[in-house]
Amino acid sequence: QVRLVQSGGGSVQAGGSLRLSCEAFEYATTTYCMTWFRQAPGKEREEVAMIDSVGGTRYADSVKGRFTISKDTPKNRLMLYLQMNALKPEATGMYYCAARSCYVYEYSYWGQGTQVTVSS
Fold first, then answer.
1. Residue 74 has what pLDDT?
2. Is the C or the N end of the chain the one with fewer CB within 10 Å?
3. 3-state secondary structure at position 74
4. Smallest Cα–Cα separation from 23: which of 3, 9, 37, 8?
5. Whether residue 30 has pLDDT greater than 80
6. What is the C-alpha separation between 59 and 48, in angstroms, rounded?
């Protein structure tokens, strides 16, 4: 059973930067599609950024040019990152990392969530 453990996040003023991290444990393969989702208060969860098994990326229009998703496998670890620059108050919400086989659409594995708060 894959476990995703998140770290990072916090509070920052508008224009600032934060980096989120997500480490996968007990994974059998690195061929996952991995995604960062965001859920703002009173709103539905939305996809922020996705990276596929060969490094292809996709971003929500609202974050293009400011957020960067990446992954790394240092010393047999599987790490997912989200670098968030030029943050805006509307980026406030709970952020979740998630992983799925790139051959299916449903996400099987979820991180515990981390709060990001951007003040104006």
1. 81
2. N
3. helix
4. 3
5. no
6. 6
